[in-house]
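As a warm-up, study this chain.
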Amino acid sequence: MFTLIKTDKNGIRRGKIKTKHGEIKTPFFMPDATRGFVKLLTSEEIKQTQTQALVINTFHLYLQPGLEVIKAAGGVHKFISWEGPLLSDSGGFQVFSLIYKNQKMGKIRADKVVFKSPLSGNWHDLTPEKSIQIQFDLGVDMMVCLDDCPPNEISRNSMEQSVKRTIAWAKRCKREYLRQIKIRNISLEDRPLLFSVIQGGAEIDLRRFCASELKKIGFSGYGFGARPVDKDGNFLGEVLRQSAQFIPGDALRFALGVGTPEDIKYCVTLGWDMFDCVIPTREGRHGKLFFKQADSYETININNTKYLQNYQAINPASKFLTLQNNSLAFLHHLFKLKDPLGARLASINNLEFYQLWLKDINKTIK
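Now compare it with the structure written out below.
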């Protein structure tokens, strides 16, 4: 259940989400634990960064290790040793990106997606109903409807078909969601939140139409679908601004894939509540570190030779002793040797930075 606590004069929102596995204060950022883990980090380390919730991926966990393994463990929380809230992406982005990149990997039909597993080569059907069933089997706190997630640069006609398919599948997802609640006898307090996804690319009128039709169905939250940048990498700020206005004020607004610190901060001013991205840990694994600087931040590339003899602490302001006690020179040394410890330390630093960044943003909401 989502409760909107405050909307300031600039439209920035503060609220809280009550789930079976704990409460989340909004706005907030979720690292992507795509296959049930954030690369190189333990659940305890992630928790110490003050991360409130994680995103897992239905598509990947369905393929490996498979539902039977996770169900036998007692659900995904127990399987990955995470006690906090979890949101499961439907897997639509992964399935469709797979197919859009290579049509030999599958086909998008009116009623379902047929795709070839990149792991085994076996063929699978994914329907809206099956996507919801899998997410219930995982036991997550928040789930996302299966949608058609196309590249932003496809033709207008193709984008219109994508929007229509997204709406039709959202209706089926909602029906299956209600059916599963009844079958599993899930109480009002324990039922997961259900999100639909607004598609339409950079076409504002299609985004408006999609949101309008999804609102008629009714969901706990609404996401911004597809990549938040155009084919040239330009951030779709105006599209995100107007899309936020299409979402009911009492519903959660999920800016999927929005992940640079400045883009997150900007989207918070537009009224978006939730964010997820691979940036902090992926960039960390390549040697890019984020550091808080007053109301802004700076980044460094630890691979640069200027850190060869820099004996300052990696991050003296960190709560992690390992970042306080080890030097930038040592971290540079680890990256030069491609030792996984270097990527671990950088990932911890960046994830801690992201949570502090959101915490500081929350403090500005009066």
